[in-house]
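fyi for ur records
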Amino acid sequence: MQKRLNPVFASGLVIATISLALWMHRAPAVAQSAGVRLALVNVPDELLRPLIPGFQEQTGRTADIVYTGRDPFGVARQGKADLVISHYGHEGVQPFMAAGLGLWPHPVFANQMALLGPPGDPAKVRGLRDAAEALKRIAQTKSTFIVNSGAGARYVEEILFAAIGDPAKGDWYVNPKVQGPAAARAAADRGGYVLWGLPPFLRLKRRGPIDLEPLVVADPLLQRIMVSIVVNPEKTRGTNLDAAKAFQDYLMAPATQAKIRAFRYPDFAEQAWWPAGRHNSAVE
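which gave:
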């Protein structure tokens, strides 16, 4: 004959079992609550690494760059990142947001595109603050201009050509149908000018000599806005929402924005990163 459990004992056993299950379910969140995992495009790591100790000191949380490359959104989709930082126009932003995988993007800083050219600078554009004027001089002197087929560079190029009245493109205008490093090398080989991102160009130059220099960088048109996107914990398990928001708030804080403004590369004295946090409240 099977014995029946005392009702009071059975009730207590059920409550204890439920409590244990809830504790086990919450345990992973508690274990990871201190740190934020950052997935970045392959540009801002040199800017962010010096900022991380300040975040850790202020918040007591750790921050780890777990990915730097072309597809930070793929890492976030796998539940391996809490915060993504990318160019606003990155091809992964729209599908990520449309799927509800990210919270509202916040501009945090802008990196710098540059008009690169040969050290001899035949068009005499070095130091100009107006990229359209620089392109006008290149066209007038029929100095070689190499097309960078990357979408961002082509967009800026088209704006600049429209700004100077779309001059006729002769033999000086060369489209080898390459982009990024290949476009920079083509410009160096032909003694020409090319538009490309300043941080990747500096990295390329550190790996080996290339006969190009950043000649025009100060035009605001050359700035490329980057955003931080907190991964939506309702869509991706294991996301550390509190830590991600804390790091985003840290990036947007005035003191951090000032550090971004002051950042300089050891091999480039001019400003290459621009603070982009904004307080656009209409309240006076």
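Residues 112-222 form a domain with the D-Maltodextrin-Binding Protein; domain 2 fold (CATH 3.40.190.10). thats all i got for now
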